[in-house]
Amino acid sequence: MRTYHSPEDRQRPSHFNLIAAAHAAMLEHGFQPEFPEGTDRELAVIAEQSVSSAGGGVRDLRHLLWSSIDNDTSKDLDQIEWAEQLTDGRIRVLVGVSDVDARVHRGSLLDAHALSETTSVYVGVRVFPMLPVELSEGATSLNENEDRVAMVIEYRVDAAGVVSDGKACRAIVRNHAQLAYPSVGAWLAGKAAAPAKIAANAKLAEQIRLQDEAARRMLGSRYQHGALDLETIETRPMMQAEEAVEILRLEKNRATSLIEEFMVAANGVIARLFEEAGIASIRRIVRTPKRWERIVQVAEKLGATLPAEPDSKALNDFLLLRKAKDPDHFPDLSLTVVKLMGPGEYVLVRPDEVSPGHFGLAVQDYTHSTAPNRRFPDVVTLRILKALLAKKTQPYSADDLQAIAERCTRMEDAARKVEREMQKRIAAVVLHAHIGQTYRAIVTGVNHYGVFVRTLTPHVEGKLVEGGDGLDVGDRVQVRLVSTNPELGFIDFAAI
User: Fold this and answer.
1) Which is nearest to 73 in space by CA: 250, 253, 264?
2) Rounded to an integer, what distance in angstroms lies between the CA atom of residue 68 and that of residue 195?
3) Residue 186's closest CA among 176, 178, 194?
4) Distance between CA atoms of 127 and 73, rounded to whole angstroms?
């Protein structure tokens, strides 16, 4: 049963401890957020290592003008990028990925903990890292002006966006410019001046524009093959003195698209290298939607006809039309499609098997390899790649990979639950001070539990506890905030 605040409660700010709630949610869903005893000893040994201990067969690519683009709050930098215009019109792309395995060896205490957790969990008020911050934000993070050992994935992009000539190597690299999505994206779109680091370096500006060109080519190619243009809204809290005071919407832009395309291509290169070598590996898949018939029904209600059999190209054409016609509702339509497609999962793919592919990305060969500081499957993939390059025995059996894939899928689902619960609690804390205020909203759900709405600014969801008769999904309504309950993550509105 929901708890409602008295008039006196509504005048008092909520001091709900979000960090403690996040820690409790992690434990509840099977995570062990504290690192095990003995971690400090392993970190001390790692701290004594240098890039010179990386071993033989490592190239020196520090002279290239590498840069990274990530969230403006990110400290765990997994990848850096560089591009070169070739005389045949193609663009050569290099993606450097942190060689976490060079510091975190298989069978170590830290490796066992990472296998147990499988992922870093981002809950807005803090990060629960898969690896200690001394590594994920330090020794294995591709920080600006620091020498690091990396796995470098190379490919070439032609005018039609076709990726070819994929290969990989180990190298010492140096990130020459740590950049952020908002400022780079605004600059690429012509909406703002160049960020300071780009404005001060003409070669860096030329480099980023070339990377953007390569990404736009690849994106166009994937759209032609049915990659889905979805726009689910992500938010993060603005923190002041460990208190959530505002909810900010994270906007996708040209810079986020650039990195997404580079990573999809790099992951595809690795998957194809494994396939050509006849090596078992873990793949990241989104199966053909089992609830396609419901997606067809959703489209019919909006005046569109989709094929009876799953067709990602037809679905994306429909999505593009809806995005242009009704941008306010498009995030809700995107969320509906995502839910009906089902979550991604990790699976073992043996050498003689065909990968189920990734329906939403319109790619058949796809693994996870580009975020080893944050995801354990990426660590595994890069270990497999290193053994392949060194012509050594593979570190994992098929049974090992099957067990790891199942664990990673299970814990990723748990991480989504923690993140959803905390998003609701954070919103309840932030909105507590605004009880009585009115908002523009859209109805997002009507069922036997009641009527649910999403406010447009800030982007939060709640239940109508007063009014709402006759409303249906997609209707616009003015609502008044009635009550919040941070402990349960409840936000209650009244229709006005």
Assistant:
1) 250
2) 13
3) 194
4) 11
Strand 243-250 relative to strand 281-285, pairing: unpaired
Structure-token match 């909810």, residue found:
247
Specify whether the backbone of 5 is left (phi greater than 0), alpha (psi in -120 to 50) or beta.
Answer: beta
- Nearest-angstrom CA–CA distance, 287 and 8: 51
Helix (H, G, I), strand (E, B) or coil at 370: coil
Structure confidence by residue, pLDDT tens digits, 442-462 = 887 888 899 999 898 888 989
Task: Kindly indicate the confidence band of residue 334, based on its pLDDT and cuts at 50, 70 and 90.
Answer: confident
Neighbours of 375 (CB within 10 A): 23
Can you tell me the distance from the alpha carbon of 154 to that of 27, in angstroms, rounded to the nearest whole number? 40
For residue 198, the cross-strand partners are none
Whole-angstrom distance, CA of residue 476 vs CA of residue 157: 44
**Burial code of 181-219, b = ≥16 C-beta within 10 A, e = fewer?**
bbbbbbbbeeeeebbebbeebeebbebbebbbebbbbbb
| pTM (predicted TM-score) | 0.86
Which residue from 253, 264, 231 is spatially nearest to 362, judged by alpha carbons?
Answer: 264
Asked whether the beta carbons of 425 and 487 are under 8 A apart, the reply is yes
Q: How many residues does the chain have?
A: 496
In one-letter notation, the amino acid at residue 249 is R
> Which span out of 36-50, 211-225, 234-248 was modeled with the highest average pLDDT?
36-50
Alpha helix positions (H), 349-438 = 376-390, 398-432
Q: Which pLDDT band, with edges at 50, 70 and 90, does 12 fall under? A: very low
Closest CA to 343 of 268, 417, 453: 417
Q: What is each CA distance from 20 to 30, 121, 123, 132, 358, in whole angstroms?
A: 16, 15, 12, 19, 37
**Residue type at 170 in one-letter notation:** R
Looking up tokens 């820690």 gives: 23
Can you tell me the mean pLDDT for 1-9? Answer: 42
CA distance 156 to 163: 6
Q: Give the confidence band of 3 by pLDDT, cuts at 50, 70, 90.
A: very low
Strand partners, 127: 122
Q: Judge contact between 443 and 475, C-beta under 8 A.
A: yes
Dihedral angle computed from the Cα positions of residues 420, 365, 280 and 46, in that order, rounded to the nearest 10 degrees:
-60
User: ω into residue 458 within 30 of 0, thus cis?
Assistant: yes
Separation of alpha carbons 432 and 383, rounded Å: 48
